[in-house]
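Journal club prep — side note

Before the paper discussion, L.F. wants everyone to see what a predicted structure for a comparable chain looks like in token form. Sequence:
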Amino acid sequence: MTEPTPGEAHAEGLGTRLNWLRAAVLGANDGIVSTAGLVVGVAGATTERSALLTAGLAGLLAGSMSMAVGEYVSVSTQRDSEKAALAVERRELREQPEAELDELTGLLAERGLTRDVAREAAEQLTERDALRAHARVELGIDPDELTNPWHAAAASFLAFTAGALLPLLAIVCPPAPARLWVTVVSVLAALALTGWWSARLGSAPARPAVVRVVGGGAVAMAVTYAAGALLGAFGV
């Protein structure tokens, strides 16, 4: 076994970029749905622009910060686990190199190489960079590309904010009689786009994804609008 070829490295980089892009699309989708549900719910109780703007901005900031903090905590935990696994592997390589060489040989043999070829490949990889070899083959980790919690947090914050801006602007910019319908139509159109794009990124059929996303967004807005209208009718 040799180091990844340029084509393989390119494929791995492309996969990483697609995962980030898919996460961005899903984050934007969350921003659209949650903020749309909030402002449509408030619109059910009042048509005052200031109340709608306040609710929308509060939802945008709370949601984007929540997404960023949650992603930071999650990815930090993953990074800590990766570092701990690398530390264990580094110690084992230092204390029992022969056993680790045998282990790497066995792992390569499990991937379809003959025992002799697996042994030769394990020896060559160990001579080149033992830790990298074990990290990639045994742990599935690239020591030079550990997950970055700050990047993940920033991406989640920006994706959610971008999605949340659409329903916020749609509810406060048009004249009062058109606000609700402009918001509903623009949100459903945006959800259809994010559903289609997420399906394309995952090489999945677009129609079921679009139906799920649009249907979920429509239900969310209908429920929050009904709740807001009910509360408004009682003067709450």
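L.F.'s comment for the group: Residues 22 and 198 are 6 Å apart (CA to CA). Keep this in mind when we get to the figures.
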